[in-house]
Design brief:
160 residues; seven-stranded antiparallel sheet; three-stranded antiparallel sheet; 44% strand; globular
């Protein structure tokens, strides 16, 4: 083994691409994050840079690594039990909003988002203007990370 090798944690996910296909595999994540305490999360990796990221495809007989362009990823479905969004600092005190998002491929995502802004600046419009391109949405089926560049419409849902 090389002395320059850095051990990575693996996180299972399914990527929904602009091509209409969904691929299943794993992200390679660092044991610590440069931007916060604790391990690197999938959203950290996706928001860290522009361009391509490595992703290991697990379908087929032998896994292999490909590079995907972030701009071509509509959504990432996290397949692990850990609710990654809850690791965000301030998660428990952030304003929670029930939303419905329409994506550029016509799919709708319904769930809950957290708005990390001071009181009075924690509206859905403040969430929509946030700087991160990839954002968590907690759905009934699990946590997804949506590419804000592919959100066509977002609206608040009333709790009925």
């Amino acid at each position: 083994m090389s002395e320059f090798r850095i051990e990575k944690r693996r996180a299972e996910a399914a990527l929904t691409l602009t091509t209409g296909s969904t691929v299943r595999g794993v992200f390679f994540l660092s044991g610590s994050s440069a931007s916060h305490t604790g391990p690197e999360r999938v959203a950290d990796l996706l928001n860290a840079e522009t361009g391509f990221f490595p992703f290991e495809l697990t379908s087929g007989t032998e896994p292999y690594t490909v590079l995907y362009n972030r701009a071509q990823v509509l959504m990432v479905s996290l397949l692990e039990e850990t609710i990654e969004a809850q690791l965000d600092p301030g998660y428990s005190v952030a304003t929670e909003r029930a939303v419905r998002m329409m994506l550029s491929n016509g799919d709708a995502v319904e769930g809950r988002v957290r708005v990390y802004r001071p009181s009075g600046r924690d509206r859905l419009s403040d969430y929509a203007r946030a700087g991160e391109l990839f954002r968590y949405v907690e759905t009934a089926g699990g946590t997804v990370i949506v590419n804000a560049g592919h959100i066509v419409e977002i609206r608040e849902k009333s709790e009925a």
